[in-house]
Design a protein that fits this description.
Length: 104
Amino acid sequence: MPEHNDSWKTSTSYEQFMGRWSRCLAPAFVSWLQLPPALNWLDVGCGTGALTQAICDVAQPKAVVGCDPAAPFIAFAQARQSDARQSFVVGGTDNLPRFPGGFD
């Protein structure tokens, strides 16, 4: 059987493929939403954190919690974290994080 090349397996591979496009497109998407500042955001399936960073850069959030079931992706996002409003947790849709006051 031929070897299967899974480009989604490592955070570096994922970032090279998805992250580079997300980092280009996410700011325009967040801006398009036209949401008010000071919201508490939940980024489900945050991958390596591209959208989470764009939310901080564009939307003036109070806080953003990024969650993803892939621990290596969360570690990658945490290592690149540049904003105190960001936090990252390992989790999927079956165990979403809780936030004081809830998410907007």
